């Protein structure tokens, strides 16, 4: 079996950005006009559609705008009433819990699979090929498939087997429906985390393992003392990227539970999108601003943690 | 003993066999939902409504696919999805690579350096944060349609793409460009004739991600596109939750048709896709 294409790091492998100063050319004149023309489309589109739009939305969060008609300034009252709104608070609670659990599950499964698939095994290409499949499938479509599995197929099988607890749908269980959302999200998100771990494993020199094996280190010892410490940087990348994505949970929840039962699996994104219903535009914009501060805060904390960690390791 | 022999022997060791076996069993987690979808899609109405759904369909009902095709108006949804994906992929490739090139070659100039960090900041702005005003804006300027969705995909992809492109551009020796310029190429020509082709591996990575994102997305089209008849394939599937909620077999035929394009593309270009996404991971 030949080494699959994935094990080739490629000649382009480069260190981290920011990019270096464009070779030897360090003219102090203004840049050529062409360069401005190349940059303008990206910056302009970005400014109009994201920066300006975000600021306009933020502006409305201080008003009582319903999404149409007149509005008046109401100061911070949208923000203060968020604090007393149990629906909002619960959506933050659910989203955070969901993101933490899914990050842990995805990383554990992805790491396990990457170690398995990175080793000497038969049918390597084929097995990898299968494990990658969920990455190319639409989240909402697979959520519809799992929806049927959870609400019809599993209860029918449970009845057949006489398994009492399985006879009611997981999706109808207010205290456990989140687990279904975690399962489907993990199903879909594991491949991309696995790719990052496989890339990390390729960088681990093989002779270390042979030396450790000769010294009598068992598989668990080799994982704990060699693989994991060498992969820690990749664990960090996966945690940050994954967590950030899971905080935006929407598609899979829509296909699976629709936020229910009740509001048990309502994510923050879902509550925000409800802003056009019930004339809640301004209120949900306040929610969006808080959500932005929340996600940005989480990302910054993670980055700070990583930075401290790097200092400790060196 | 040749290397191949040694390798084959290692693959036959009990530990490796056990590992292969476990991994093979693990693929069931991926395959069961997909096989289940196939089994359901081939059942008759009555079969689909009874039992667990895991029983083999008999008789085979292939008409479900045609019913699903008609109910979802598949050709139209397909055309809309394709339009969004093509524009999003082309736009992400062109807009991001141009901006990344300008930034990488003018890193010593403050404006370009700031633009880099400004564009990168988008990583901290998820779609839900700006969704509501974006719905307003797109409907105001007549972009509450597939084109508007494509534009938003281009925008939300910029930060990650620029990160990938600038890292790659560093590895292209400047001497190459110098010689192109001596031959009389303008900056514009240098980019299109020399740099863009050299970026090919990154273009593949960016293109694959852009395609998967835009093709499979539900959040943006469902929020932005006003006209229900202009919806994408993932969004039109919701009729089976609302209107035709008891036609399980037809719904599953439709889900399979929704999954088919990316799944088939992946099966035929597996090696290429995998190396492309790995390149993104290494960065």
From TrEMBL, chain A:
InterPro entries: ABC_transporter_permease (IPR051393), MetI-like (IPR000515), MetI-like_sf (IPR035906). Residues 92-302 form the ABC transmembrane type-1 domain. Keywords: Cell membrane, Membrane, Transmembrane, Transmembrane helix, Transport. Residues 1-28 are annotated as: Disordered. The chain crosses the membrane at residues 35-62, 94-117, 129-146, 225-246, 252-273, 285-305. Coiled coil: none annotated. It is a multi-pass membrane protein. The keyword Hydrolase does not apply. It is found in: Cell membrane. SUPFAM superfamilies: MetI-like (SSF161098). The keyword Cell membrane applies. Its main location: membrane. Belongs to the binding-protein-dependent transport system permease family. PANTHER family: ABC TRANSPORTER PERMEASE PROTEIN, INNER MEMBRANE ABC TRANSPORTER PERMEASE PROTEIN YCJO. This is Sugar ABC transporter permease. It comes from Streptomyces luteolus.
Automatic annotation (TrEMBL), chain B:
It is found in: Cell membrane. Residues 78-269 form the ABC transmembrane type-1 domain. Keywords: Cell membrane, Membrane, Transmembrane, Transmembrane helix, Transport. CDD domains: TM_PBP2 (cd06261). It comes from the Bacteria. The chain crosses the membrane at residues 21-42, 78-104, 116-135, 147-169, 190-213, 250-269. The keyword Transport applies. Pfam families: BPD_transp_1. It is a multi-pass membrane protein. InterPro entries: MetI-like, MetI-like_sf. SUPFAM superfamilies: MetI-like. Belongs to the binding-protein-dependent transport system permease family. This is Carbohydrate ABC transporter permease. It comes from Streptomyces luteolus.
């Amino acid at each position: 079996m030949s080494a699959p294409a994935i094990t080739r790091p490629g000649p382009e492998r480069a260190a981290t950005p920011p990019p270096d100063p464009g070779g030897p050319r360090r003219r102090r004149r203004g840049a050529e006009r062409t360069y401005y023309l190349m940059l303008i489309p990206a910056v302009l589109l970005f400014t109009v559609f994201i920066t300006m739009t975000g600021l306009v939305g933020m502006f409305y969060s201080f008003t009582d705008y319903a999404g149409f008609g007149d509005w008046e300034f109401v100061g911070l009252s949208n923000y203060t009433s968020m604090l007393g709104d149990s629906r909002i608070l619960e959506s933050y609670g659910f989203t955070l819990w969901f993101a933490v659990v899914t990050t842990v599950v995805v990383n554990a499964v992805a790491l396990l699979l990457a170690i398995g698939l990175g080793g000497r095994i038969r049918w390597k290409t084929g097995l990898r090929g299968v494990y990658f499949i969920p990455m190319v499938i639409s989240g909402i479509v697979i959520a519809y498939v799992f929806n049927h599995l959870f609400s019809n197929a599993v209860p029918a099988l449970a009845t057949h087997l006489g398994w009492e607890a399985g006879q009611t749908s997981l999706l109808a269980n207010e205290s456990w429906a989140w687990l279904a959302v975690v399962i489907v999200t993990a199903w879909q998100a594991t491949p991309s985390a696995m790719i990052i771990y496989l890339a990390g494993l390729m960088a681990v020199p093989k002779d270390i393992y042979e030396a450790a094996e000769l010294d009598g280190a068992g598989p668990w010892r080799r994982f704990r003392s060699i693989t994991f410490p060498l992969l820690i940087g990749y664990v960090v990348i996966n945690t940050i990227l994954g967590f950030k994505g899971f905080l935006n949970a929407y598609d899979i929840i829509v296909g699976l539970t629709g936020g229910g039962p009740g509001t048990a699996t309502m994510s923050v994104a879902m509550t925000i999108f409800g802003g056009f219903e019930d004339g809640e535009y301004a209120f949900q914009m306040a929610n969006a601003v808080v959500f932005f501060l929340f996600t940005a805060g989480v990302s910054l904390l993670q980055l700070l943690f990583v930075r401290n960690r790097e200092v400790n390791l060196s | 003993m040749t290397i191949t022999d040694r390798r084959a022997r290692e693959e036959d060791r009990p530990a490796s066999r056990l590992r292969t076996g476990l991994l093979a069993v693990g693929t069931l987690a991926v395959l069961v939902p997909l096989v289940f979808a196939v089994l359901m899609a081939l059942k008759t109405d009555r079969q689909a409504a009874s039992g667990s759904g895991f029983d083999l369909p008999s008789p085979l009902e292939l008409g479900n696919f045609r019913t699903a095709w008609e109910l979802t108006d598949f050709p139209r949804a397909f055309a809309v999805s394709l339009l969004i994906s093509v524009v999003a992929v082309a736009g992400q490739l062109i807009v991001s690579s141009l901006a990344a090139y300008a930034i990488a070659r003018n890193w010593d100039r403050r404006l370009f350096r700031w633009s880099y960090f400004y564009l990168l900041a988008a990583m901290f702005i998820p779609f839900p944060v700006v969704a509501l005003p974006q719905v307003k804006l797109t409907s105001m300027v007549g972009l509450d349609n597939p084109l508007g969705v494509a534009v938003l995909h281009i925008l939300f992809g910029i930060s990650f793409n620029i990160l990938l492109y600038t890292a790659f551009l560093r590895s292209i020796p400047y001497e190459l460009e110098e010689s192109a310029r001596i031959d009389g190429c303008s900056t514009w020509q240098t980019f299109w004739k020399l740099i863009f082709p050299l970026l090919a591996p990154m273009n593949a990575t960016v293109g694959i991600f852009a395609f998967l994102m835009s093709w499979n997305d539900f959040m943006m089209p469902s929020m932005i596109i006003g006209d229900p008849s202009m919806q994408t394939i993932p969004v039109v599937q919701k009729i089976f939750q609302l209107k035709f909620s008891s036609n399980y077999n037809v719904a599953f035929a439709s889900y399979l048709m929704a999954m088919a394009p990316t799944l088939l593309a992946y099966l035929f270009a597996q090696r290429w896709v995998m190396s492309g996404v790995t390149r993104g991971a290494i960065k």
